[in-house]
Amino acid sequence: MPNVESTGRLSGAQTDLPGTLIDPVWAAEQGLGPAVVEGLVTAVEDTAQWRSGEREAWGNTWLNWPSVWADPDPDRMVSGIARFKDKSLLPEHEPKLLVKAPTELVRPLLAKWRPQNLEGAAPWARVLIARFGADAIPVALKIAKKSPALGGELLQPLTGPAIARLMADWLVARPSQRPAAVAWLDRHPAVAAEVLVPEALGAPGLARSAAEETLRVLTERGHREAVLAAAAGHGPAARDATGAILAIDRLEAPPARTPKPPKWLDLAKLPPLLLTTGTPVPQPAVALLCAILALPDVGEVAGRVGTVSPACDPTSLAAFSWGLLEQWQSGAGTPPAKDAWTITAVGLLGGDDEVRRLVELIHDWADSGKGARAVKGLDALGAIGSDIALMYVDRISRTSKVKRLKTRAGNLLAEIARQRQLSDEQLADRVVPRFGLDTHGSMTLDYGPRRFTVGFDEQLKPWVADDTGARRAQLPKPSAKDDPALAPEAHARFAALRRDVRAIAADQIRRMERALVERRRWSAEEFQRLLVDHPLLWHLARRLLWGVPAPDGRLRTAFRVAEDRSLADADDEAFMLDPAASVGIVHPVELGDGLAGWAELFADYEIIQPFPQLGRGVFALTAEEGNAAELSRFEGIEVPTGKLLGLRSRGWQLCIGDDGTWERAERAVCGGTRTVRVSISPGIPPAYVAEHPKQTLDGVRIDGQPGDGDPARFGDLDALGASEILRDLGYLVS
Q: Tell me, what's the pLDDT at 189?
């Protein structure tokens, strides 16, 4: 096997090879060494630099907490601080205490506090940072380590050496966090330069490489004067050395260290790597590519690989990356953790086939306690970034039983949504794959002498038809008469398609029902492009009733999607959707007398709905209940614990009390300005659910935001909101 360090520069005769694989510019080979200016230190201190009105806006963030925390008792705060110090306070209550307790009691605690649960942390974290400014930086940094997506937002107004170094690391080693890092650098260029100039002129290593690249990015983004001013403050030597750094293109600079080939790597047994011309890449160049993939700076790897990929056949690149991962996995003994770069390589070079195989590995790693490896696999899925890859990330975020994996998947989706400036649901719309299906939702599979058409029915179940159009029970296996290359590939393609569609079908139905309950709206363009024109989702769209709301939110008109993807009204006449309109799924409470007509029309066309819509139960509050803050009709009823847990799938949250048990279920309503709370006893210990099969409903009440002038009442709910709350409560007590 060629040693990367001994191969040196490849022959210039290899004219088809990208330059990166001809001249590796290893520092050791060129005798290059970065200039080091010793003794430089930064004088930057931690600060908070707020924009006009920003601190006030953060400080006024609404916290959806029980009323006991809205205006807490002073004695409760003092006792809470004591419990915080002796570690007897539940982690769920720590943020509430630190946000609400007197500042003089809280400030000394911030430096060492580690928030445990970051689900729903953004509101209280904003308030905490607004309240304590720079003193909250240790907390913000710990949040950023556990949840980079949230940390990237929270750190924007904060500055300091640790933050500048983190942003430099994000810039070069975490592509998903690069937008947050760039935003921070644009906001605080002078601080960044003051901190990073000494780092960029220090000893060679990852920290220096990150600092150098960050200074180059600052310069490219118009902050050259800030960088040069910071360098000049350290003297002529620092100024000149910094100028030399800025003059070097990153991909022309040598890496911080020369990688050595791992012992398990056998180049001869890797899948052949081909150029786009079909010419095999020579083994010395393959060795160089492996060395590039092994570089520790992920951003640098991505940049260098980006110069190689366009010259190579993508299918061979993907297979090559999987071959690397398999060799690492199957080597003698435990796969060395330092060589987990092979997982990253799949993220940079793999395709949808590698996605499916990687998902299986991720689950295996998670189940066998290899959490770090599973998380790295998730990041690789995010790097591949295809619709199929993001579909599986989304699925893991909702179904994984491994908390670390579930959290990372959710954070990864949040990072991607933020990069694309989309809400979570908008991103979920856009990552539903089309699976290579045509506009009719079908696909032709070529067996050579035989061809088959496959598609999906309104239940998203697959069907198969032969050349004559006759339906078959299933796709036949390849026979001796079929093409030996085409037929097995087509059969495997259909198996993967069927598996992928099965994975998303139930998820998409749940999403649509949630959109009904939460009054989600699509623009007319989104409705057409993401739903009606989608080869799979249109099957769901045509089994639902859609509507256009008036400016006041009430239903203006309803329509359905016909079999030919046209739109039709209640009289089955063509309906023209205004391009400026918004579209939502109609709730039966909105239809009034029109419900019967639509139900009859759907029955005439034998349309089976994916979930109860037109046949959905409609419920109403009594006049007395509308004027009250509590629903007495449910008080004292005993319910199965399992049904309370089932409320979570309907958009409710279970909340932990001081004794560590789930003591209530909550659901935000009225656009988040009100909260319905169901109190229970004796409570559900999360670790001993089976030992408490029954719970008693102690009360159902609605609360508003702290400081509201008018007390909340159930009449604040409109007819749809009230019906859905009563439907959920009816499910609970039935």
A: 97
| 120 φ/ψ sector (left φ>0, alpha ψ -120 to 50, else beta) | left
Non-local (6+) Cβ contacts of 51 within 8 A are: 157
Rounded CA separation 581/568 (Å): 16
Chain centroid, CA 188 distance in Å? 27
Q: Round to whole Å and give the CA distance between 650 and 640.
A: 16
| Lowest model confidence (mean pLDDT) among 25-34, 73-82, 320-329 | 25-34
Per the document, the length of the chain is 734
Residue 27, Cβ neighbours under 10 Å: how many? Answer: 17
The count of other CB atoms within 10 Å of the CB of residue 73 is 10
Residue listed under structure tokens 């393609």: 493
**Per-residue pLDDT tens over the stretch 21-63:** 776 655 444 444 568 898 899 999 999 999 999 999 999 887 7
- CA triplet 562, 565, 569: central angle to 5 degrees? 40
Q: Which tokens is 531 given?
A: 């739903």
> How much is the pLDDT for 255?
62
- Tokens coding 197: 């100039």
Nearest to 172 by CA among 181, 162, 163: 181
Residue 114 backbone dihedrals phi, psi, to 5 degrees: -120, 105
pLDDT at 506 (0 to 100):
86
Give the model's pLDDT for residue 261. Answer: 86
Question: Which residue, among 254, 246, 211, has the nearest Cα to 31 in the 3D structure?
Answer: 254
The answer to whether the CB of 168 falls within 8 A of the CB of 157 is no
435-454: b (≥16 Cβ within 10 Å) or e? bebeeebebebebeebebbb
Specify the fold of 623-733: TATA-Binding Protein (3.30.310)
What is d(CA 550, CA 220) in angstroms, rounded to the nearest whole number?
48
CA distance 340 to 324: 10
Per-residue pLDDT tens over the stretch 192-203: 999 999 999 998
Read off the pLDDT of residues 358-385 as tens digits, 9 standing for 90 and up: 999 999 999 888 888 999 999 999 999 8
Q: How far apart are CA 245 and CA 217, in angstroms?
A: 11
Domain boundaries, the chain: 1-26+258-350, 47-252, 354-431, 442-507, 515-604, 623-733
Residues 111, 95: Cα–Cα separation, whole Å: 14
Contact predicate 229/274, CB 8 Å: no
- Residue 182 corresponds to which amino acid? V
Q: What tokens appear for 50 in the block? A: 């707020």
721 in Cβ contact with 713 (< 8 Å): no
Place 15 in a pLDDT band, splitting at 50, 70 and 90: low
| Torsion of Cα atoms, 24 then 29 then 30 then 31, to 10° | 150
Please, are residues 449 and 411 in contact by the beta-carbon 8 Å criterion?
no
